[in-house]
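Following the same procedure, sequence and fold were stored together, as reproduced here.

>
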Amino acid sequence: MDYLDRQDGSEHSSEDIKAAIEAVLFTAGEPLSLDILTAVTGMDRKETKDLIEVMASEFADRSHGILIREIEGGYQLCTKPECYKYIESLVEQRHKQPLSQAALEVLSVVAYRQPVTKAVVESIRGVSSDSSFDRLIEKNLIAEIGRLDAPGKPKLYSTTEEFLRQFGLKSAEELPVMNLPVQEPVYPGGKDGDETEDTKSDPAPGDMDLVDPGTAAPGTGDPGIEKGDLQE
């Protein structure tokens, strides 16, 4: 059995440390950074990361129902997709209405243009998107991350860790690259106006043509939005 030296001078087997990491990930229920896991185990970063990678390989075996997923540099225990039908039979799931075509279009635009304002999304789609934004926020697929330093200080939206989990991505950088023309940013109420909410509801999916999502590669955000423009 392999033994590892902790930073406090004590000695523990690699199996003990792996068990500790598993317990901590299970208890957290959300991604934990390598720094947190290093502090918990008392190991150095390289040894902790190596152990996590070994555990991920072991969990990937078909005899396990869970896996370790890396999400934006953090690690989380998740159930394997192929086990969903068994989990569903055990726990009575409340009915979850699938996303509408309109909501999927909004999610696509946000994913490719983040951080992005609602006005830019609506200018790309050509229709009001209030109800779709509300639905995506309710499902924790997008979230407000700040305000743009521009007239009216419109809200900026980005995708969430839940979005990455749902689509099996480590980060937004794994989205397929789309080389589309850049579109000028649109500010709610015009250049001098305050942000306003359009109360018109989304049209039914069948009444609307599918619009190509976004006009920039993942992570590039709105044209003209500099890092210093984003306000928390």
